[in-house]
Amino acid sequence: MTVRGSGPCGALEPGRNWPLGASHDGAGVNFALFSAHATRIELCLYDARGERETARLDLPARTDHVWHGYLPGAGPGLVYGYRVHGPGDPDAGHWFNPNKLLLDPYARRLAGQFRWAPAHFGGDAAALDNARDQFKAVVEDGGFDWGDDRPPQVPLADTVLYEVHVKGFTQRHPGVPAPLRGTYEGFASDAAIAHLQRLGVTAVSLLPVHQSIAEYPLYARGATNYWGYNTIAFFAPDARYARADPLGEFRTMVRRLHAAGIEVILDVVYNHTAEGNHTGPILSLRGIDNRSYYHLRPGHLRFYENYTGTGNALKLQHPRALQLVLDSLRYWVDEMRVDGFRFDLAPVLARGDTGFDPNATFFACVRQDPTLARVKLIAEPWDAGVGGHQTGNFPPGWSEWNDRYRDAVRSFWISKAAYRGELASRLAGSSDVFGRDGRSPQASVNYVTSHDGFTLHDLVSYDVKHNEDNGEGNRDGSDANYSWNCGVEGETALLAVNALRARLKRALLATLMLSQGVPMLLGGDELGRTQRGNNNAYCHDSELSWFDWDRADAELIEYTAQLIALRRRYRSLRRRRWLTGETSADGIRDVVWLNRRGVEMNRRQWEEWGRYVLGMLLGPSQPGENALLVLINAEGADWRYPLPAGKWQLRLDTAHPGGAAPATVASGELLIEARSLKLLEALPGGAA
Q1: Domain containing 368: what range?
Q2: pLDDT for 253 beyond 70
Q3: Which residues are designated catalytic?
Q4: What residues pair up with 231 in beta bridges, in sequence order?
């Protein structure tokens, strides 16, 4: 038998039990796979296309539950998979089945194509062999010329996130060469980067790029998992976004984004895998060591704890499951040079026998790891299990998606379901949620819209979700949207309705960029992108999800860039410390909250419902800065606002298209139009 890239070889040598996965040392390849309950493991070798098996070799050694073997003469490009023998006893939590070719969980590169077939399942299909329709792993050499790449290392306080899908961003972009659209290369094209730089965002937060597959029910009805929250390989870039070389093309994208000053944050799904519940396929971890890797139901080990709503949940209480996640994270930082992570359903990673544990081993390991401690860590702080909503409960060093911010801002501006005190707390960074254990305002990732829900345009165009095309009877997706159609459901030619929608969009975006914390812009909102009322477009790899650049709102793009530039201009909008309202030693208060008559708020006024006018007076954050005044009128009628003493320069006015702020110096009273926001800067020596 001849191994691709090497000379003839026979039986495996013992090798070593580290590192896990397949590693090339220049003379051969070492294979190491953890399984505490297996009785035998076969290494299956394939031709370069992953179609024809060329050899089966038993891993000859076992050390500390790691099975290992060394293949002299083997090298990069070798294609392989595993067949793992052991008890086939689902009631005892074991799904071992040597008829199933299993993917190495440490695979960096994949060969072959995954196709849904009955052979992937157990039960009546237990005797069927799935190799023909299964991914195989490829030995990777790790080489790449990074040149003079330098991570931008943007301080968290200065970060502006742009949440975006690799394919959706460029699939219809006329400035991206047609062969590159929808790919890593397209995302790194001159036209794509030019848009990001025009906006002024500092980081792209990419929807999942780990190799994923569509769930079987989606496949069965001809749909797909466009978003990619169904991972099958934690180390491999998704081949859907590559033309030929997923690793090289992903790395090239990162290098080009870094050269443009833009960081790369990955949305990672370590809470579950694509193997689903007890009726799901046997593809990797389930067949390697189900009891070690997954949370199983006590007393009913055939079944899984479904903390994720997707059928299974990884059990990071087990040291080898924890190691898998940590090794993957380090790989993406060290070898792929990403700048941080957004953890999907993050409480799952810290779940123990009694629920979420803020002192979980996972957090301790990340905190002390010299590689992971230096990157941005962002939690989606909820999961689908009991006690799964944990916003504000993650440890220092973590930022969190702030759903309290999302709901308060929507409610205040759109549905009038939040009072002034709630909005003020969110504008000030949400210290009531995150202000403990030495955390800073940057613990709050503020957002009005995200991939999961309405786009900004749809938020002000639909009263209810319209997910009929998802094939789930419009039952999927949230019903708590705090949205408003402004009088007409969906698109309309009525000028007054469209003008109102545009004004609300400008006000919402301005609120986001003028708040303390880390702002996250949903990619496409600056274009006026619509999903036609669908608030859960996860299964639509189509024009519904792709950016429509031909119909982009050029005025809104320019306005969004203006807002980000304003945020960058004024350090008082990016404070590293909490606003307190107290007077400093030099007699300056960092914030004063004003009622509709320009007088400082009292307790009773904070709690008044039906009042949606207020002012936020920000004192200078450093010498040489001027005070800023944010005036908000979310009511349906104009209001003449009494300004603080002195003269004020108007910097932003969301009542007008483009947020136009003519060179206006104001004093006395200022008209604040209905459903609008103004930003003013005190003239030196002119404001009290």
Answers
A1: 156-573
A2: yes
A3: 344, 380
A4: 212
